[in-house]
Design brief:
two-stranded antiparallel ribbon
């Protein structure tokens, strides 16, 4: 099985599990699922985040190339894997802890903590630029001569484990509670109560928190309240990423006001899944395509992410942006960059159709006095 196929299977499984959990919570446990927030999490900027991740990997490769050390040469692959797996998790602990300690890093990581509902989708709610700050915490692996392929492999496995840690169905994980970061341990990390704040930074192993004094067990008598004390009140991934940075730089930026143009949530869910499909296509063409393939897919997907964010905030700009960019950029693709990939092209057509339906069917609630969003017209973009 080639790597492209594995990427498709893994990401399809990811979306399937996310949607299944949402349906299970809503129809079996009778808890209202936050579908709009879940789609925000799914499309929290994976295309731009992956570009930044690519810069991190290039930096890792550069250090590896010029390092005189090759400490892993001659070791059996299983030994290399075990050492790398533990070392990466140790680096992640300090990477994660630093992003809570220093304000310049917290404004990047804060996006992940703005989510107020604990579910699988929260595990893939990521900041656009956090990967740009990751390399210092893993550079020693490159200096030691760990191959890039092994670095990417162990990092990917850890990411899958952290996806599991965000599930809302598992309460306790039995014996795993002793040595792993479980959903229970990680719920603590997302807590806003004083006893839970800045605890349980580990990614896979809980030993680092126990060694360095940051471990906190989940208390049955104190249910976790999720979120962030400096939350940006928005369903728009653009503002969610940019407002914390702008405020840290000294700009006075208010939380965006909800607009007056809404559509049924299921349309946002459908469009969000289609846009996420472009992220998967980008990963595939990063493996076997060229720069122009990647650039046009990135442009269409990132424009769709931005537009959907404004649509979630009920702004007219979002509907116009999504429809225009999808039509114009898809036309450019078919005229100048066509890859003859049936899956990509069907996805593009479905995205255009979805954008058109949303544009033609949105509801203007400006004069609806029964609306739960009674903002005045002059607040609408």
């Amino acid at each position: 099985m080639d790597l492209a196929t594995i990427l498709v299977i893994v990401n399809a499984l990811l979306v399937t599990l996310m949607v299944s959990e949402g349906l299970f919570n809503q129809y079996v446990r009778k808890h209202e699922s936050p579908w709009k927030e879940m789609i925000y999490n799914l499309n929290s900027g994976h295309l731009l985040m992956w570009v930044c991740r690519g810069i991190e990997i290039v930096g890792y490769y550069y250090i590896l190339t010029y390092s005189p050390y090759r400490l892993f040469d001659g070791l059996p692959i299983w030994q290399t894997f075990i050492i790398a797996f533990i070392a990466w998790d140790f680096g992640f602990y300090w990477f994660h802890r630093a992003h809570h300690k220093f304000s310049a890093l917290w404004v990047l990581h804060n996006v992940h903590h703005q989510g107020e509902n604990y579910n699988l989708s929260l595990g893939i709610r990521n900041a656009w630029f956090s990967s740009l700050t990751a390399l210092p915490f893993y550079a020693l692996l490159a200096v030691a001569g760990l191959p890039v392929e092994m670095f990417i492999t162990v990092a990917s496995i850890h990411i899958v484990i952290q996806f599991y840690n965000h599930n809302s169905i598992v309460n306790k994980s039995g014996i795993l509670e002793i040595f792993m970061i479980t959903p229970s341990h990680h719920r603590v990390h997302h807590g806003t109560q004083d006893i839970y704040v800045d605890k349980n930074f580990g990614g896979t192993f809980v030993i680092w928190d126990k060694l360095f004094g940051t471990f906190q067990v989940e208390l049955d008598e104190l249910p976790v309240k999720y979120g962030s004390h400096d939350k940006v009140e928005t369903s728009n991934v653009f503002w969610g990423n940019m407002i914390p940075i702008l405020r840290w730089l000294g700009f006075k930026v208010e939380n965006p006001v909800v607009g007056n143009y809404r559509i049924p949530t299921y349309q946002i869910v459908i469009n969000g899944i289609l846009v996420f499909g472009l992220y998967v296509q980008y990963l595939i063409y990063e493996i076997g395509g060229n720069f122009s393939d990647m650039a046009i897919i990135f442009a269409i997907g990132f424009a769709g992410t931005l537009g959907l964010g404004f649509i979630s905030d009920q702004k007219l700009l979002g509907y116009r942006l999504n429809l225009l960019t999808s039509v114009i950029l898809s036309s450019i693709y078919f005229l100048f960059f066509r890859i003859n990939d049936i899956y990509l092209e069907v996805n593009l057509m479905l995205i255009i159709l979805s954008n058109l339906v949303m544009y033609l069917t949105f509801e203007d609630i400006s004069f609806d006095i029964t609306s739960e969003f009674p903002e005045p017209l002059d607040t609408v973009i």
